[in-house]
Batch of 2 targets.
Target 1
Amino acid sequence: MGLFTISFQLIIKSWYLLAPIVFLIIFKSAWFRGLSGEFIISATTRLFLNKDKYHIVENVMLYTENGPIQIDHIIVSIYGVFVVNKKNLKGWIFGNKTQKIWTQDINDHKYKFQNPLHQNYKHIEALPSLLGLDKQHIHSLVVFLGDCMFKTEMPDNVIHDEGYIRFIKSKKQPVISEPCVSEILKIIERSQAVPSFNTRSEYVKNVCQILSVKSIY
C-alpha cells in the first residue's frame, strides 16, 4: 500500500470523526442562524403569499440622501410596502414599543439589545421620499425567529415565526397601483448601494444616531 493511499485514508477517517463537530459549530453559529433566517422569511413569503401580488427583496442596502440603510427584507404589494426586521434569538424576550432597550433572558443570563422597532424607524423615515409614497403606506414589521418566547405583551407588528404572514394579509385595502408596484421595485433596484467598507461604515454611524431619535411607533 502506497504512502499516498495511506495518507488519503487517514484524511477520510479524520473527516468522518471531525465532520459532526464541524457541522455542530456551523449550525450553532450566528452566521448560520442569520442564513437560515433569510431562508425562512424568503421561503415562507413565497409559499404563503401570492407571488403575483407580493414581491420580496432580500438583504437590501439602499443609499439615501441621509446615507446608506440596510434592510433585511422589503415586501412590495398593492397593499403597501412592508419593511421587515428579523431577529434570530433564543430564550425569553422582554420589551415594549416605547423602550429603547429590550432584554433577552437565556437561563437567567440577561442580554440587552436595541428595540427593533426603533431600528426600523430610520428605514420608515427614509423610504417615503425615496419611493414616492405616503408614510402610512409603509408598514414596519419585526419578525422573531427561533426558540424564543415573548414574556411581555408585544405590538401587533412584532411577531414570532410565520405569524407575520397573518399581519401582512390583514392589510386588505389596495393603496398602491400595479404600475406603481413595478416602479417601486425598479427604484429599489436602482437605489441599492454597492456593498463596500465605506458604505457599511457609514451605515454603522447612522445606526448609532437612531438611538437618540424618539420612535413614532
Note: Residues 3-210 form one domain.
Target 2
Amino acid sequence: MEFAPSALLSTWAAGVAALGGLVVWWRIVGPGFTMLACGSVALFAAPAALAGAGPGAWVAVAVSVVAVAVRSRPGLSAIALWGAGAVLVVAGMLDDGPEVAVVTGAAFLGGVTMLMLLGHWYLVDPRLPRWALKALGVAAACGAVADAVAVSLLGAVPWAPGDEPVGFGFLLLAAASVVLVVAARAALGETGYSGVMAATGLSYLAMLTATGAAVLGRLLLDGPVLG
C-alpha cells in the first residue's frame, strides 16, 4: 500500500458523509447542521480530489452540494450524504489500497469528527437529546478499535527495524483515541450542560489522536518509515 494524503482525506470525507447523513436522518437538527455536515464533506473531499483522489471525490463534492440544496427535506439530504459516502468508499476500494482499511478508517475518522461537530451544535440548541452523542461515541470507539486492528493485521504491526518510535506512536495514539472517546461518552452521564462541554472538549483531543493514529498506521503499511 502506498500512503497518499489524498487517500486519507477521501476516507475521512466518506466517514463524515456517512455519519453526517445518519445525524440528519435522525431529524434532531435543523438545516443549519445539514449545511455544516455537507461543508465538512466538501472540506475533505475537494482537497482529496485536487491531490489526485480521482473523479469520485469530485462526485462526492457535487452530491454534497445537492444535499445542501434539499436541506429542508432531511430524508433526501441524508440519502444524498450517504450517496456521497458510498461513492468515496467505492473509489477508495478501487484506488487506495486494502478495502477493509477504507471502511474502518471512514468509521474511525468520521465517528470522531461527527462527535465533535454535534457536540458543538449543542451551543445552538442545548435541548438536543444526548442519546445522539452517545451513539456517535459508540460508533467512534468501535471504529477506532476496528481500524487499529485492521491496520495492524494488514502489516503495520510488527513494524520494520528502526521504526519502533513510529510503531509505538501508532499504538499509543490508537489507544488514546479509544480512551478519549469512551471518556467523552461517560461525561454525558453528568447532569447539566457541563457534561456536554466536557464531552466536546474530549472529542477535540480525540480528533488529534485519531488523525495521528490514522496517518502513522498507514505510513507503517507503506513500508519502512525511519528504518
Note: The chain has eight helices and no strands.
